[in-house]
């Protein structure tokens, strides 16, 4: 009897927390491929998420930011590495991250910055003006960045009604109201 | 009509062989730079290069960008000179720009077999020439875009003359600042040496013929009783005539898709100053330096156009039904053009009927004209009427006193019909008429016939015949083989 009761309770708990994946494709019109779009679930009313303790990483290698677009959860600290044999700098002109400037540092070293607000931060390097990268700080842990074919997968998404947003470095952002129930497919199309 | 591949080759060979056997014969050409950049054929923009189709005209007026261009259309990724976000930091940071992904260079090679006949009424002799001008000229082009708001074009031409002499010239070198204010395409600024948009639609990129419209662009207005004709090597010709190319600053743009305007300020291109001491009575004692205006004045020119029907001048196709054959449309483009300038202090040597020497200055000149271009399916008929007035001061070379002042007028017009028989065969007929200011001289009349065979999109052969309608012993038959790569 006790075992049966525990089983029922476990099943009930599992039901309320059932999670699937949100997946689909983002068609990016007017650009060479459909990579680098960030798909994420917008802030969920009444829900907060603790900032992750684990640092994210943005590398500077071969004179490019890698990855080009890095989505993170708000509160995440990002370590900016330099894997080149030349000096690099990282700064952002965006107010949402207080226009930080981390100075200049050589190969093998890194500097860190914590993104405390929701933000689409452009990253630049004063030493190499052509370098450009993006940190997209989002309010939930449910996010993904698209591959070149536009596909994305966000795992462990609880069932429910959400606003799913899409951001891209050069195309207009968009959003949809989505009801997630287990594995759910949502496709988007964005353009200039 | 589609020819099988073997027929194309055979026809190309025949045309080449015909040229070689006949032993027979200058507008701008094409830039395969853009074929490489966009991975597209020359015929995307040209009916037969250099003649632009409506899309090519929009591409040119858009500063060498496709209408509504997006980055996926550009197959050669440009080199970034600064991340786009730096725009927000200007002037604290340098405005970002781009370089073309590859060296933006192209070469045109022109082989011409010329058979010409000219009659000299003074001697009563007819002289014929039969020259293989292989090559006649080689052009090195550079053209492209520099970021979102700049473009450039330059052309260096190397020529070989029938007498073995060679020439080289920077024919074009210009920088354009595109869409610098207001809506896209409305305000563009051009600086350098270029063919002004004053001639948009009837010179350089619109002429498929080997011969240019000499009666329009090489008229010499200076003469004891006014100008006597075109094509002379007289010093005044390139200065005060309608100049084919200018050194200048030009504003131009397209409004509401169909209205075109340009206004420019230019230096005259001509002999300018002289090395040695200039003696008007004997100009051969000094050598013209060739490139600089030698008075303090600039010429001003302007033009307005409107295009009815067809593709918009900026490439807009809203509400327009266009066929897949991209040279076809039904449209009418009309325009007004004008130029005014001042040649005071520039002396030209003239003589009266007794041979007495004088200096002459063209102290004020105006050119005013109308342009029309009608495209009806495969046919494009276009032409210009131009009237010129020159206020000519006759000056005593010894005392520099003005002896008299006369205003002389001339008019010239031409009409040309280009017809696309099929995409590989295009033909053209042109009639030119020039009534010089000197009324004792007969009006000039010329007929120019052309048959062009487009061997490949970037290789063409032309058979062209030009006839002086006043003297049938003055004629020229050219066979041209031209490749762009």
Keywords:
heterodimer, A: 192 residues, mainly beta, Immunoglobulin-like, 2 domains, 4-stranded antiparallel sheet, 1 helix, 17 strands, 47% strand, globular, disordered N terminus, B: 485 residues, Porin, 16-stranded antiparallel beta barrel, 25 strands, 9% helix
Oligomer: heterodimer
Spatial strand arrangement across the major sheet of chain B: 5-6-7-8-9-12-13-16-17-19-20-21-22-23-24-25
CATH topology of chain B: Porin
**Overall tally of domains of chain A:** 2
* Count of discrete domains of chain B: 1
Q: Which chains share the greatest interface?
A: A-B, 13 and 17 residues
Provide the structure class of chain B.
mainly beta
Shape of chain A: globular
Which spans of chain B of ≥5 residues are poorly predicted at pLDDT below 50? 1-25, 271-276, 287-291
**What is the average per-residue confidence, as pLDDT of chain B, rounded to a whole number?**
87
User: For this structure, what is the CATH class of the largest domain in chain A?
Assistant: Mainly Beta
Describe the structure.
The complex is a heterodimer of chains A (192) and B (485). With 192 residues, chain A is mainly β. Chain A has 2 domains: 19-47 and 141-192, Immunoglobulin-like (Sandwich), CATH 2.60.40; 50-138, Immunoglobulin-like. Chain A has one helix spanning 2-16; strands spanning 19-28, 38-41, 56-61, 64-66, 69-73, 77-81, 88-91, 101-105, 110-114, 119-124, 132-138, 143-145, 151-158, 160-167, 174-180, 184-185, 188-190. In chain A, the strands form 5 sheets. In chain A, strands 1, 13, 16 and 17 form a 4-stranded mixed sheet that branches. In chain A, strands 12-2-14-15 form a 4-stranded antiparallel sheet, with no helix packed on it. The radius of gyration of chain A is 19 Å and the shape is globular. Chain B has 485 residues and is mainly beta. Chain B has a single domain (5-484), classed as Beta Barrel (Porin). Helix content of chain B is 9%, strand content 49%. Chain B contains 5 helices and 25 strands. Chain B has helices at residues 5-22, 32-38, 54-61, 214-217, 236-240, and strands at residues 46-48, 51-52, 79-80, 98-99, 105-120, 125-145, 150-160, 166-181, 187-194, 219-220, 229-230, 246-255, 259-267, 274-275, 287-288, 299-308, 330-341, 348-351, 357-376, 379-395, 402-422, 425-435, 444-456, 459-468, 475-484. In chain B, the strands form 5 sheets. Chain B has a 16-stranded antiparallel barrel with strand order 5-6-7-8-9-12-13-16-17-19-20-21-22-23-24-25. A two-stranded antiparallel sheet of chain B has the order 1-2. The longest helix of chain B is centred in the N-terminal third of the chain and has 18 residues, at 5-22. The radius of gyration of chain B is 23 Å and the shape is globular.
């Amino acid at each position: 009897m006790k075992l049966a009761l525990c089983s029922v309770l476990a099943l009930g708990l599992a039901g309320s927390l059932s999670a699937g994946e949100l997946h689909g494709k983002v068609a990016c019109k007017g650009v060479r491929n459909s990579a680098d779009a960030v798909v994420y679930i917008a802030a969920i009313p009444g829900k907060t998420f603790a900032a992750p303790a684990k640092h994210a990483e943005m590398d500077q290698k071969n004179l490019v930011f890698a990855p080009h677009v890095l989505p993170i959860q708000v509160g995440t600290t990002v370590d900016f590495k330099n894997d080149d044999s030349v000096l690099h700098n990282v700064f952002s002109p965006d107010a949402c991250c207080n226009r930080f400037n981390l100075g200049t540092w050589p190969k093998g070293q890194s500097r860190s910055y914590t993104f405390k607000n929701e933000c689409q931060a452009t990253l630049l390097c004063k030493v190499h003006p052509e370098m450009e990268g993006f940190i997209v700080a989002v309010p939930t842990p449910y996010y993904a960045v698209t591959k070149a074919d536009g596909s994305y997968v966000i795992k462990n998404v609880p069932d429910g009604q959400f606003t799913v947003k899409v951001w891209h470095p050069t195309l207009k952002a968009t959003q949809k109201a989505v009801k997630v129930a287990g594995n759910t497919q949502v496709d988007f199309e964005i353009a200039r | 009509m589609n020819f099988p591949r073997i027929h194309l080759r055979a026809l190309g060979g025949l045309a080449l062989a015909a040229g070689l056997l006949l032993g027979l014969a200058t507008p701008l050409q094409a830039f395969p730079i853009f074929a490489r950049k966009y991975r597209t054929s020359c015929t995307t923009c040209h009916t037969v290069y250099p003649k632009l189709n409506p899309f090519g005209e929009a591409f040119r007026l858009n500063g060498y960008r496709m209408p509504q261009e997006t980055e996926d259309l550009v197959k050669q990724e440009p080199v970034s000179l600064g991340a786009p976000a730096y725009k927000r930091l200007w002037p604290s940071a340098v405005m970002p720009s781009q370089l073309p992904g590859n060296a933006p260079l192209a070469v045109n090679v022109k082989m011409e077999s010329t058979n010409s006949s000219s009659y000299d009424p003074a001697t009563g002799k007819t002289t014929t020439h039969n020259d293989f001008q292989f090559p006649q000229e080689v052009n090195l082009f550079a053209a492209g875009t520099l970021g979102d708001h700049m473009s450039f074009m330059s052309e260096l031409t190397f020529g070989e003359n029938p007498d073995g002499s060679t020439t080289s010239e920077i024919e074009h070198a210009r920088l354009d600042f595109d869409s610098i204010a207001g809506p896209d395409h409305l305000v563009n600024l051009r600086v350098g040496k270029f063919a002004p948009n004053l001639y948009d639609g009837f010179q350089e990129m619109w002429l498929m013929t080997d011969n240019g419209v000499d009666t329009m662009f090489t008229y010499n207005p200076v003469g004891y009783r006014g100008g006597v004709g075109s094509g002379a090597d007289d010093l005044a010709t390139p200065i005060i005539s309608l100049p084919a190319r200018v050194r200048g600053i030009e504003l131009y743009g397209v409004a509401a898709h169909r209205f075109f305007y340009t206004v420019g300020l230019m230096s005259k291109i001509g002999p300018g100053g002289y090395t040695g001491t200039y003696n008007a009575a004997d100009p051969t004692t000094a050598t013209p330096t060739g490139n600089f205006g030698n008075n303090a004045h600039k010429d001003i020119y302007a033009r307005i156009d409107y295009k009815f029907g067809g593709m918009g001048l900026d490439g807009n196709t809203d509400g327009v039904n266009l066929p897949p054959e991209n040279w076809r449309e039904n449209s009418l483009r009309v325009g007004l053009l004008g130029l005014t300038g001042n040649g005071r202090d520039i002396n030209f040597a003239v003589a009266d009927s007794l041979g007495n020497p004088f200096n002459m200055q063209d102290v004020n000149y105006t050119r005013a004209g109308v342009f029309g271009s009608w495209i009806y399916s495969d046919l494009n008929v276009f032409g210009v009427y131009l009237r010129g007035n020159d206020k000519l001061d006759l000056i005593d070379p010894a005392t520099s006193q003005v002896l008299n002042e006369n205003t002389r007028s001339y008019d010239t017009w031409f009409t040309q019909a280009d017809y696309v028989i099929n995409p590989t065969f295009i033909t053209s007929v042109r009639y030119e008429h020039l009534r010089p200011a000197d009324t004792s001289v007969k009006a000039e009349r010329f007929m120019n016939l052309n048959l062009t065979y487009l061997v490949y999109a970037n290789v063409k052969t032309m058979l062209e015949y030009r006839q002086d309608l006043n003297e049938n012993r003055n004629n020229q038959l050219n066979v041209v083989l031209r490749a762009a790569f």
